[in-house]
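Memo to structure team: turn this sequence into structure tokens by end of day. - J.P.
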Amino acid sequence: MHKYTIELHRAMFTDEFFEVYKKYELAVHKKEREANQVKRFLCNSPLYDSHIEPKQAHSPSPFAGSKIDELFHEFKDEGVCPKAKGTYHIYHRIDGRLAAVGVIDICRSYLNSAYFIYDPHFSFLKMGVVGAIRELEYMRLI
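Reply from structure team:
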């Protein structure tokens, strides 16, 4: 029996995300990518909720360097309904291993499915279809 879980995170670069992205881009698009490309394309979103105060850097920082990015997004599961609008990553895990990531924009009146990547190891599971269904289910919740 396998365990399938989903986590919702603020769009944020992690090494784990980048490894899946590199594998996906090479297998599907036959292109090699660098970290700065994925940061710019899928992690550094201009979307934000102006009603939420941005986090300010503190000294000493209460966050571990690998748990927060240059936009002050903390890497944590945001739960089903995040407090702020913006760009998020939906992590799909199988037995704890990152199998796929959906990139979505949660806005005031709609949800935009921006991009979807998966580890080619899990291509037999049709993760793109799974991701689309989960995003449709999520739209009904928010």
